[in-house]
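Record type: monomer structure entry
Structure origin: computed from sequence
Chain ID: A
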Amino acid sequence: MNRQDLPLELYSADQVRELDRMAIDEFCIPGYELMCRAGQSVFERVKAFCPEARSCAIFCGGGNNAGDGYVIARLAIAAGMEVTVYSVVEVSKLKGDALTAYRDCIDSGCKVAAYDTKALLGEEVIIDALLGTGLDREVEGLYADAIAAINASRAFVIAVDVPSGLNADTGKIMGCAVKADLTVSFIGLKKGLFTGDAPDYCGKIYYASLDIPNAVFDKVDCAAQRIRFLQPPRRSRCTHKGHNGHVLVIGGDVGYSGAVRMAGEAALRVGAGLVTVLTRPEHAILINSSRPELMCRGDIDPECIETIIDSADVLVLGPGLGRSDWSKGLFDATIRAAKPMVIDADGLNWLADSEQYGEHFVLTPHPGEASRLLKCSVSEVEHDRFAAVNSIRRQYGGICVLKGAGTLIASHHHIAVADVGNPGMATGGMGDVLTGVIAGLLAQGFSNWESAEQGVYIHGLAADAAAADGGERGLLATDLMPYLRRLVN
């Protein structure tokens, strides 16, 4: 299953518990039947990814996640595998369906041993059924020891529902977490599987609906959605540059001419009709000579700036803007304009000082800029990225794009998650290119939401294509340009 085959809808842990409850109480599907379906779906992944494996270790905790593990153990034994089950809790504490699964597992001939930190893990496959979605505190004690042992093994690791130690709602690691090669998520995809620390811990994600009726999902609105790529429509044969919008990129203080150049070129590469760059006079000549399609202005007279702003359809404020008096003058002259406006980099830092609000804003902070906007620490932003992106949107208006692994896009009504991109994007200029992509889509008539959502996705897809061709390490922001052009066509 690839990323486009996964459902778009993402849910909180509480929402998935409600879906589970409705399936049991309102549609009369026994809880143990759902547990058996979950175990079967995981075991199918074992057979698919490790068809030659003959040994399996299963780590079980004390809840329904453990019950899934006991079902898997029973199925593995029936398939002729050597199975060792480690329990990190007294099995006498098991209740309900988990207890039923344990008893059926024992009846199948399986041996369950209390986990001992001295145990040597030599199995080919490890199943993580320790904690599941109910985690609400830092992992410690025997659970932490078991997680450390799993991560130190050379086995193929499959996480049941969510890697133990990963917060299913935020994607944050709760002290420590299992690093899985594959995660099988049940009933509803958890929103924390796609952002924060999750990309380093989930491995490949699979989804198992457990054959829950669609009518159950109709009763619960999802918490967020993965982005679906929408191919831009074909252009009319009679179109001209005036139909495709005029972007004005404002910034590029001393030493930062490259930022506005990259933003401007990205806007052109995704289809903007015209792009003007308003920057330092000495930069205007340099940029225009290296990319003549960009119209470059070095005017700093307030009346000239106002005229240039009036001529544009979309404004980009911030790439390379800096923190000088020159920068502040440009910010003050631009922020009052009632036009679609993408604000990035030092534009965001000036915005944090001014605390202005605008529903026409598209804000694109990385976690450091988000911390300044919210006047908190970066660790607080990363602790719950969903809460942070919502807070910025409420405080400053418009659309907020919180960049990072699993970029989040928030409007008044929606949150989208981008499950594209790669570590090669951790290099200077990538944010400037994204800003230009969003502005270029805005200029062509896409809404603020569509431009932000699709801009983030196109940007990530372009980076993935560039990395596939040349590798992640050494990837440059300008390497994305030819891929951007292909994707929008």
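Annotation 1: The CA atoms of residues 61 and 437 lie 47 Å apart.
Annotation 2: The chain has a mean pLDDT of 95.
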